[in-house]
Design brief:
The protein has 105 residues and is mostly helical. 52% of the residues lie in helices and 0% in strands. The chain has helices at 9-23, 40-54, 74-85, 92-104.
Amino acid sequence: MTTPLYGRELEVRVSGDAGRSLLAGRGGILFVIGQPGLGKTRLLSELRDLVRADGVVTWLEGRCVSYGEALPYWPFQDLLRRWLSGGVVGPPDPLTDELAHRIRK
């Protein structure tokens, strides 16, 4: 059982609006940023539960790393790697082929 999320009403409302917008057919990107320990993972858990309860969605989540400033597009690369290969980092060609296959579905 998860404890209630207190003190984050604005964040829950904004992320919930983004989730409902997604379920209405309008895509988008939601960036959740902040210092460690502020509840980013917990907030995303709430949002994930909301959109999964109301519809069938593909949930893609990328992670930033502390050294990521030197790595252009790191969160997007991470997001695609996780989606296409379960997080396994490998040569780019198979990932490119898998991405093309999933887009055609």
